[in-house]
Amino acid sequence: MATAPAWDSDRPKEECGVVGLCVPGQDVARLAFFSLFALQHRGQESAGIAVGDGHQVHMHQNMGLVSQVFDEDSLRSLPGSVAIGHTRYSTAGASVLRNAQPIFCTSTVGDVAVAHNGNLVNAYALRKEMEEEGERFDSTADSELIARLFVNALPRGPFEAVREVMRRTVGTYSVCVLTPKCVVGFRDPNGVRPLVFGTLSDGWMMASETCAFWPVGGTPVREVEPGEAVLLDADGLQSEKIVPGEPERLCLFETIYFARPDSVMHGTTLYSARERMGEALAREHPVDADIVVPVPDSGIPAAHGFSRESKIRFHEVMMKSRYIHRTFIQPDQRMREMGVRMKLAPLQNEIEGMRIVLVDDSIVRATTTGQIVKLMRESGASEVHVRITAPPIQWPCFYGIDMASRDELAAAKMTIEEIRVHIGADSLGYLSIEGATSAVGPQSDRYCLACFSGKYPIPIPDSIRRDPFADDPDVVGQMATLEVQQGSLFQD
Prior knowledge:
This protein is an alpha+beta fold. It has 17 helices and 24 strands.
């Protein structure tokens, strides 16, 4: 498995991507593959597809990128007209094959597979409760809790199964569930994680983002509402609001960084939203400079917006290697110390003597940003002014983003001036919360702002850990035995 390289340690890590498809009379595994491929940015640890043929569920999953997990033979082994897919970055449960998704379960009414994006904040307590009820688990992933709750309630019908999941879980989830004959998608009552459905040839599909629709000719219709369940089968589409009345709290970081810029959320293309963030950043933190430089690739739209608003020339002066993160070879210590040089190559002739506005999406630990500022100075920049489209990140995320613990977050430990000194910039400006939310749309109260404000829309237990099972000797012991039996070691 390719692991996250050292030079990306200052980035918030991706969450997960899910897809679901139903095209009566057509094998859809290949469609699921290309839709999942479009969501690769949401997770690179593992990938899987499950397909229903009307009688049973067939599944293929493994560690690695979508293109590494699937080939022609594996896709041909997945016949059926309904499918779900998943690409994973682990935020709960170790990054091992047993935790790869979709998660497979059997029930009295047939096979079930579950793909989940999000994080349950009551996972530890719920698992203990379910174990006391006689449930046994095969993984340490919180997604298995959702799968087993759904399976146990499925004899009462798919919508009742979703109701049971929402009744007993606390946290964030966008979920696609597969039975041999249908796909059920649902979103947590606060809608923190995204999910959208739409049409596909003679059928339907759903996905974490609209960018997954384009490769297969799908057309997005609308977002699944918070607390809503949508069922796709040979008879068409059915939907039901399972938990009404909860306010939507889509993760603002989806709009700033995580989702692909060609995706649409809340009715706006995120590339345009990020351009508006750059414009707002130029108004909030103006500076005299010669060129506006994006940190590729996530800083490009905001840099365009900053340039347009400030009338300072946009200029790309860093070339990004698009393949360095795909290697299985780990860097040695000397290469780790070189940091961003492994990924970014400066155009020194274009930098020398320039006053630079360096635009990026976020600062987490402030290590990578400092390395890029140093790179600009070593390339001859006379001034480096850093502008960031995310407000200062001061609180950890418990809702499905692997960001950092609070004692690792730069803005939780230092003032903005101290961060400026730490990264070696001539000036530092963060976009305000109001500037970020207004750039996405007029309804600024529709977003989760917990990592910026510390105000969590879903209460967080005092005892919660990043991985609530990691320090439980019973769970770790059980998983070690299971992994050794399968011929591999249980490891984080």
